[in-house]
Amino acid sequence: MGMNIPLETIFRNNLRFYRQKSKLSQEKLSALLDKNINYINMIESGKSLPPITVIEQIAEILQVEPKCFLEPIEKEEAFFDKETLIMNTKDEIAKSSEEILRRLFKNIKN
Q: Which residue of 19, 71, 85, 105 is most buried, as measured by CB atoms within 10 A?
């Protein structure tokens, strides 16, 4: 690695990446860990670091190896995920818009 990114930063970024990839909110992951609602937010914002045992629990919930939190994510993987997120979000917005328009036109006919 040419860049010297602090390990804590890599950990926080990867936690956020894999949590979002699993479509879990910070609050939901905190609840699954049986922790305070702000627990994951405290970690991702750099105010706290979890013990190894909690890292293992998080890895199990997110279905990744614990070592994944310590290895910088390849730009291609992160980019691919962003594109997937954009496409999925676009589809969700289109479905919601269609539903809203159908209700609107139904109300106009009546």
A: 19
